[in-house]
Write a structure and sequence with these properties.
Blueprint: H1 2-23, H2 50-53, E1 58-65, E2 75-77, E3 88-96, E4 99-107, E5 114-120, E6 161-162, E7 169-175, E8 187-191, E9 208-213
Enzyme class: oxidoreductase
InterPro entries: SOD-like_Cu/Zn_dom_sf, SOD_Cu_Zn_dom
EC number: 1.15.1.1
């Protein structure tokens, strides 16, 4: 009888061990942890659109309020009747794939009026003449330059505009001017009249009304 009870006890222990071994092991190595699931693959990088690939290599901006001349003034008015003190100017020069796009926005000038405007070679000063002549990609050997072969909107930078009833205006131009290798484009000058194109007067636009120091 005692021998039968011992046999049944050993059989029960063995069965219990076998069942437990399936879960955590019994007297053997611990069960291996479940395999980690493979990492979720990273999303592929999106390709640049043609527009993104052609974004400008450089962009420069000048924003200011016109006022009387001071040594540290950024924007100066020489004729407050046509470019009042407090008028605002915002100029952006953006270089993209060898082409420069220049945009100027103006607020608070005389309403319903045409103005001439150009990029000049020198910084603004106490008088409009301090800004020097127009920037020219190919310099005219004769000065002042009034030859349409040189004084034209491709060789120079013309930004003529007309204000609306509130005295606001926007002008834009594009060209292949080599500003990135030159140091003679320093200011944006507003003139009294639209720019002439005829021989002997080409490039002229009357008096210099205001000046903004800017980079291009």
């Amino acid at each position: 009888m005692l021998q039968q009870q011992r046999t049944r006890l050993l059989t029960t222990i063995s069965a219990t061990c076998a069942a437990a071994a399936l879960l955590a092991g019994c007297g053997g190595e611990p069960a291996s942890p479940p395999a980690e699931s493979p990492e979720t693959p990273a999303a592929p990088e999106q390709e640049q659109s043609p527009e993104q690939g052609q974004q400008s290599a450089s962009a420069k901006q000048a924003s200011a309020t016109y006022g009387p001349y001071q040594p540290d003034a950024k924007a100066i008015t020489y004729d407050p009747a046509l470019v009042p003190e407090g008028a605002k100017v915002d100029l952006t020069s953006e270089r993209t794939n060898g082409t420069t796009k220049i945009t100027v926005n103006l607020q608070g000038l005389a309403p319903d009026r045409e103005y001439g405007a150009h990029v000049h070679t020198k910084p603004c000063g106490p008088t409009g003449e301090d800004a020097g002549p127009h920037f020219q990609e190919k310099a005219d050997p004769v000065t002042p330059s009034v030859d349409p072969a040189y004084a034209n909107p491709q060789n120079e930078v013309w930004l003529d505009f007309r204000t609306d009833a509130q005295g606001d205006a926007t002008a834009t131009t594009e060209g292949t001017w080599s500003f990135d290798t030159r140091q003679d484009a320093k200011s944006f000058v507003i003139h009294e009249t639209p720019t002439h194109t005829e021989p002997g007067k080409a490039g002229t636009a009357g008096g210099r009304l205001a000046c903004l120091n800017a980079e291009f």
